[in-house]
Amino acid sequence: MSATARKTAPNAEDIRARKGSTPLVSLTAYTTPMARLMDAHCDFVLVGDSVGMVLHGMTSTLGVTMEMMVMHGQAVARGLDRAMMVIDMPFASYEHDPAHAFKNAARLMAETGAGAVKLEGGVEMAETIRFLVKRGIPVMAHIGLTPQSINTLGGYKVQGRDEQAKAVLADAHAVAEAGAFSVVLEKVPQGLADQITAEVAIPTIGIGASAGCDGQILVVDDMVGFFTAFKPKFVKRYAELGPQAEAAIAEYASDVRARSFPADEHVFPDQAPTKGPKT
Ligand code: KIV
């Protein structure tokens, strides 16, 4: 399936132009119904590779494939009318060399209609970002805690305290100079996130960073309380839908066992009623 960019959606340059103005609002989405719910409220929606953990029960994002990203990207695109869609490049789809990254980024955009791709990495990915941008692929960078590298980072740790600060700052400058239109700062200490926001010319999107960033992003299932396996400190729970859904399922199970569901209003009489709407 091929898809074309929606005419009314903001594009990467619209997002870049929001540097220093009203904070950009973003959430992840993986399905059409969830995308529909957030379309009117978000500037951009990220089809995150967190889909592997959130919807597929994986223990990390490393097993997420191009096919999964294409399928979830197409589903999200069906739910969006006005927000921009950004899609994650999954692990091993872009790190080897810039030409390989281009092939996969172009496929994600062509088959889903996404307006940009996001990839993880700083200084080491600058050449690839430059290569993609020069060939028409807008890139959102992602630095600090990069979940695809948990095996070399030693887990989901804060990145950029003490001696590490210089390296994270260098990553931010490298991706901005390479042409990224914005950069996600994940689990970066507040002061460093504020310094990066002040120094780079592109919008910073915080997740576990600082309210001073140019925008914020959260995993939607975390903030509405559907994903309850663990709760990172940076997540604010705006709802508890997981426990509510479980209570509904338990009530249904008890109704079925007691034969109190289905009730008369849920079943069809033997004789069709003569008047009124079809039942
Ligand atoms: O995959 C994802 O959900 C992300 C966000 C957390 C930034 O990369």
Write up this protein.
The chain has helices at 12-16, 32-38, 51-54, 66-79, 98-112, 126-134, 150-153, 165-178, 190-199, 220-223, 241-257, and strands spanning 24-28, 44-47, 84-88, 116-120, 139-144, 182-186, 204-207, 215-218. The protein has two domains: 12-236, TIM Barrel; 240-267, no CATH class. Helix 2 (32-38) packs across helix 4 (66-79). The chain is 37% helix and 14% strand. By secondary structure, it is an alpha/beta fold. The chain is globular.
Provide a quick synopsis of the model:
The protein has 279 residues and is an alpha/beta fold. It contains 11 helices and 8 strands.
Annotated CATH homologous superfamily of the largest domain: Phosphoenolpyruvate-binding domains
Calculate the terminal CA-CA distance, rounded to whole Å.
38 Å
Trace the largest sheet across and list its strands.
1-2-3-4-5-6-7-8
Number of domains: 2
- The pLDDT mean sits at 95
DSSP helical segment count: 11
State the total count of DSSP E strands. 8
Largest sheet: 8 strands, parallel, barrel
